[in-house]
Amino acid sequence: MILTFFYMVATWVQAWRLSSLRTRLAAILQNSNSPTPTIVFYINSIGCVNQESSVAKSASSHSNGSTDSLSSELCNNRSLAKLGDLLWYQGDKQLCSVYPQQKVNVSDWLKFPLGKTVFPLCMHNYSKDAALGECRMHVLVEAKLDHYNPTASIKATKLEDYGTVVAWTSNTYIALILEMDLDYLTKLSTALMHGQQFINNGLYLTRVQSVVVDGKPCVYNSDKLESFHKNKLIGKAQWNAQVKKLRIFSSTARIVSQQGIPIEVEETPGVYISPGNETPTLHAPTILEITIPSDTIAIQSTSDAPFPSTPPPTPASASAVINGTVSRLSQELSGSLEFSPTSSLDAPTVLSVSPSPSKSHDLALVDSVESNLTKSVVVIDSIPPECLDVVLSDCLTKTPSPKSLPLTSTANYSPSKKAVTGSGNYAKPPNILLYADSTIAIDNVKRVLEAILNRNKYTIYTLSSDEACSDVWMDQARLVVVCGNVGVDVASQLVEYMVRGGRLLALCSDTLHTLLPTFKTAEVREHELVRFSYGKWKHVRMMHHIFCYQASPAKSRFSQDHEDVKVSAPMTPASANVRDKAGKTHTFHVRVLGSEETWHTPSLLLANLPATGGKAVFSQIHLEVDPSQYEFEESKFSALKQSNSARLEIFSDLLSSHLGMDVCSEPRVLPAYSPGFFLGRHELKLEMLEKLKDRMLPNDIIKTGKLEIQFCGRSTQGISASASVLPVMIHQCPDNFSTVEYFENLSSEELGRLVIYADVMTSSMDVVANCQLHHGLAVIPCQQVSGQGRSKNVWLSPKGCGMFTLQLHIALNSVLGGRLSLIQHLVAAAIVSAIKSIPGYEDIDLRLKWPNDIYAGSTAKIGGLIVTSLIESETAICNIGVGVNLSNSEPTCCINDLITRHNDQYSTNLPKLTAERYFALVFSELERILNVVQTGNMNHFYEIYYEYWMHTDSEVVVVSPEGTSQEVKILGIDDYGFLQVCDKGGEIFTVHPDGNSFDILKGLIAPK
User: Fold this and answer.
1) Which of 599, 559, 523 has its CA nearest to residue 15?
2) How open is the CA angle 490-493-499, to the nearest 5 degrees?
3) End position of a domain, from candidates 898, 915, 948
4) According to the model, what pLDDT value does residue 348 have?
């Protein structure tokens, strides 16, 4: 009882000190009747000295006008510094105000990288931005580099907990500029008063002072510093090497600042420091207002965006003005054209542009895009006579939304039959985006989501800090999940996402304070078990968030479970008025879903915006944490294990009941791997196996890049199918694939004449990875466990999806061998042409999105492909992986849905396509187009491609990073499949993804 009393007294004293110091600092900084001073916390030396002598020395130096301790030597006006008020002192530590306000020019400093970094210091530089309130300031922090104590970093004061680091430099000291607010300056000063002088990397802090910042810090390509991001520093020798690198970077930055040109850093090949182009500015806080309306009316949004009703008109010619050659297309452009604003942007694709098509292309160019996105942004480089980086935003065919369009675009489409689309609302692709402040949190959330959600309906991606701060993901997410602290820029984006109708799940995140600013952190309650109830789940014991947000009045402390304490619940505001970036106010309705049972802290809250359908669920309970994380804490582990089923059920109910997600009714079970079947004429199968004989291992096994394939004859002892082994039966036929129907519809001579089919495999691309098997060999799975998209993208592979991989052997000295980047366009065109060439199916609204996506109408992606290649002698081995929604209505719609809708609309009776017929028709059409192209008749392909593509006559605006813009029109593709655009002066530019990679989350193709 005595200990409890002392704890209460200590807590009260601590709170009083914080409140008192904050009030005093606020009075000094916010006094409109006097100039704003600089607040300085300074430690004269390292080690303990006599307090009286220290104070006397400090007072003597002040009276003599010394500025050694008053201001940093990095400040421009240091010599003018005069003591204002001595607010606190103890030993060699002192807190005071200084006049005039001190200034730092950061032109020869370096911009601090965002995100998790080890260089220049170990930190997660995105922790506390969202919690920054008013009275924001830049703060200079200095620490001596030669006082490194690696063991001290365990108990160090982490700078990222007090704001965002924006710039750094080093010499004798390492100096950093942080953006923080008055609350965090108070907390940091208090921590230093209590002796917590060690900061990140175990460095001893010597100075904290508020400053005014000007100048533009230099920048460097931190992604090249891979070696610095692998391991934390653990010894003196490593730290000395780090210090040497810090000083080299800083000295190079000073030279760059003087000369104004990029310079490569000594001893760090590939890392360049360039002059800065952005001055650090204080971000304005998100403006929110709280009201408690007397009456609350829920309004549900029921608007569905219809598909555009018209396909593209007469396509642009394949020819264009290239290097001064005038063609029919340029003559058409000279006529008058009318454009109507019937298009809008989704997510951008960034590409590079050259003035004319290059005849030398890396085979990696054949790699194609796996994406749910419908907007293109283009980075144009080497436009003669100047080098200019620009961004081109490609317009498609959706109704514009002026509030959400970053660029202006228009397109012209002539009316025709109404577009036929599948059922359902496909306004948002089936992407779930995760943002968390730790990889452990990301793994936990992803594991729970994968266990709960319909695995055939959603793809899960992780957002980086930079990606989260951009706008392009907002229209690409069905749900956003955040865990932990977010930055102020991310918090602003989340508010914007919600007011646009987005769905948000915030798990133990300070995003709660962003929406409800009256909710304050009452007290840290680290690693505490609490009881709470939600719906039918009563008295569930789970781990609480390390912070506790609740409406005022905040409690001084929190009881343990065994304490019998009864308190009344603080009032939760019924609504929150939130302003978006444009300053428009939106009213969210707020409701408590579940409360912690001792102090009645809201454990689960729901905020919804009836006007747009935006919703957010906030949890202060760690619903994502698996009990196994506490297996070494017996009491917690036991309680969490008992609550685990309730945890998953509550998580599932929140997703389905409040956020509209499709959850599994039963635990997910991955399909079991199955053997494959070798289909085709017996003689052709023997021919392929004979060619592979020299490469076969014992037991008739061929090793590809990712699999062991065992061709099983009648006497072969087969190996069980697994993620690494695929047994293929040579003399058997599958039960779930009709070989009769397939070969009856196949009219090709080579493509698809040999097939490896399996009910379940990892990925059809794994069968042919880095391996030359046979020209025209098709690999067809019924289901894939690990469907592949481009880069880190995912391709959902449910039953009914028409998936295959086709291997083509193309001579490099052939027509197509000289322009391999066309292959992705040929395959995409063949798929659409194969279906629309069937009598009666001509009006099924399938379209092509450059470079290789297949769309239902203009908004729902139903297919995509990837192409990989390798060189064997004079032959390119191209493996083409294709996935098209054939009979699966999830996650968007499918071809057979379009056929059903067409029958209903036009009273026809077109039969649905079976998988066997679909594959046969596609392989036959692709071989026909390839044969024509290889004869040199490229126009035949262009006629097919332009008939179905969705970009005809699209007019877009090209915007450079500097803000300059010009209007251009998309003309078509060139002989290599790269996009061509024309400016108002008639100059043609070629857009291509040369040397770039695609990321579905950003919708960008950015340089590797």
Assistant:
1) 523
2) 145
3) 948
4) 32
Contact 576, 516 (CB under 8 A): yes
Main-chain dihedrals φ then ψ at residue 654, nearest 5 degrees = -60, -45
pLDDT tens for 119-176 read 888 887 764 444 566 688 999 999 988 777 765 555 678 888 888 899 999 988 899 9
Quote the pLDDT of residue 393.
Answer: 28
Specify whether the CB–CB gap between 772 and 766 falls below 8 A.
no
The domain boundary, picked from 625, 658, 691, lies at: 658
Residues 810 and 840 in one domain: yes
Strongest mean pLDDT among 118-132, 651-665, 772-786:
772-786
Dihedral through CA 358, CA 359, CA 363, CA 369, nearest 10? 40
pLDDT tens digits, 311-358: 333 333 333 322 232 232 233 323 322 222 222 323 333 333 333 333
Residues 834 and 939 placed together within one structural domain of the fold? yes
**Is 663 among the domain residues?**
no
| Rounded Cα gap, residues 194 and 183, in angstroms | 17
Residues 841 and 932 in one domain: yes
What's the CA gap between 844 and 323, in Å, rounded?
39
Containing domain of residue 635, as a range? Answer: 433-477+479-556+570-658
**List of long-range contacts for 623-632, beta carbons under 8 Å, 24+ apart:** 623/448, 623/507, 623/542, 623/647, 623/650, 623/651, 623/654, 624/441, 624/444, 624/445, 624/448, 624/483, 624/507, 624/651, 625/444, 625/543, 626/444, 626/447, 630/543
The pair of three-digit structure tokens given for residue 562, joined into one six-digit string: 């065994």
Residue 116 in domain = yes
Which pLDDT score is estimated for 292? 35
Instruction: Give the chain's domain count.
Output: 4
Q: Assess if residue 885 is contained within a domain.
A: yes
Please name which of 158, 157, 169 lies closest in space to residue 112, comparing C-alpha atoms.
169
- On whether residue 395 sits in a domain, the answer given is yes
